[in-house]
Write a structure and sequence with these properties.
With about 210 residues, this protein is of the alpha/beta class. The protein has helices spanning about 10-20, 45-55, 70-75, 80-90, 105-110, 125-130, 150-160, 200, and strands at about 5, 25-30, 35-40, 65, 75, 95-100, 115-120, 135-140, 165, 180, 190.
Length: about 210
């Protein structure tokens, strides 16, 4: 069965949210590249992401949330510095790593005890999260090891028939991936350099592990 491609009008967003609630997987535009996601609290749907992308099972999947208020749904023992960082960089290209909340499944974390979380800075992604009323387990909408897609056509070239629905929001800006900062250690540690420079993070927190 082929992938259904629709637009990003409110009715399209509502349809995509229903597909996700029903355990489907959906591709959508983000502030960097196209992502593909599943309802974060549907472990079987998250498992489908690994199959669709041919993603190694030991590679955890990040979560997208609508805002800092949703953090308690996915993270525990959230340090105060997380809220300071969120106030400065969310929505945006900073991914924060936390101890996972109990309801975050092994399918998301590959059996680990931490989870990577970001608030995306894109109207379509935000609308989808609002309609879903839940976090998204999401990663780039490509086959593992292939270039990340910046258009709906790019997505279909790799994932046609492997995903249920595609929201065509035009061309994404592409660019540098998010910076990943681990808040489960003291001092916090940059796991991946990205769009948010280390120097800007240092303006918010006292110390970063080198």
């Amino acid at each position: 069965m082929g992938t259904v491609c629709i637009e990003t009008q409110p009715e399209d967003i509502a349809r995509a949210a229903q597909v996700l609630c029903d355990g489907g997987i959906v591709a959508f535009p983000t502030d960097t590249v196209y992502g593909v996601g599943a309802h974060a609290f549907r472990p079987r749907a998250v498992e489908r992401l690994y199959v669709a992308k041919r993603r190694p099972r030991d590679k955890a999947i990040p979560l997208l949330i609508s805002g800092v208020d949703a953090l308690p749904l996915v993270a525990r023992s959230v340090p105060d510095v997380a809220y300071a960082l969120a106030a400065r960089f969310w929505p945006g290209a900073l991914t924060l790593v936390f101890w996972r909340a109990e309801q975050v499944s092994d399918a998301v974390t590959s059996g680990g005890d931490t989870v990577a979380v970001r608030v995306p800075d894109h109207t379509v992604t935000q609308a989808l999260l609002a309609a879903l009323e839940a976090p998204l387990a999401a990663t780039s909408a490509n086959l593992s090891g292939r270039p990340p897609p910046v258009s709906a056509g790019d997505v279909l070239a790799q994932l046609e028939g492997r995903i249920d629905l595609l929201l065509d929001g035009g061309v994404c800006p592409g660019g540098v991936a998010s910076t990943v900062l681990d808040l489960t250690c003291t001092p916090p540690r940059v796991l991946r350099a990205g769009s948010v420079p280390r120097g800007q993070i240092a303006e918010v927190i006292d110390e970063i592990e080198r």
